[in-house]
Amino acid sequence: GHKVEVTLDKGTKVSEVLRVCLERMRVRDESASLFGLFSFVDEELLYLKGDSCVATHLHNGVLTLYLRYVQSPEYHDLCPPLQHLLYLQLRQDVMAGAVAGLEESTTVQLGLLAAQVETSSGDIIKLEPKYFLPWNAGPSACIAFDQRSGDRLTGSQGDAQALFCGLVVNSPEYSLYRYWGRENRGEGSRRISLRILEDRIILGGQSYTFAQMKQLSHSQSYLQILVKAGDELKRNKIFFPDNKPRHVHDLLAELQLRHTT
To answer: Rounded to two decimals, what is the model's pTM?
Structure first.
């Protein structure tokens, strides 16, 4: 990937940094709204709202940001360079174990497709499983990949890339984002999972559409989500450490806006 280093003024907005990144990646204006900037903390992606000041997100004067699609766009609606950016994002997600619970055969298939995308048929190299399988892949998956190393599953690298993206995005195990919080500050309090999918959220095992989210609010330590389930309103309060509620709130608000307007 590309690495861009920028020096910031005190009042620099996240949207200004985003614009520099998009220019560097030669993303056209009509596609700019697909992207956002994220930090990566404790294996969780934290969204930075465009109108916020970058200085408010700094840790010890330094901040590493990642340019990502906010949602997974339709692969075939993208031009080839943006298709490849989507592939790289999903590839990174798979390697980080974001698609939990995949069947071993699918894990191996994704690894073989990635190998086909990133090597040519004439390459005489040993394909190491650790470069193409998630960090949490089991020994049997590594052995199966090794045995099939070099298999070409499609007729071209482009087809392999498209199939890889389709398998990930359409997997029921794939989450755009996942966060772990607690009922309250107590270390022993019940853990609460928040999964954000393409068209809904799953909060504590319950599924809600973005339209069912009626109110979002946050403090430094708590995120509150008011949802409508049937005729009832239910308020969910989740504790997150380290000012994380701000980022999760802003991401949910952005996704809700995209889904309901």
So the answer is: 0.90
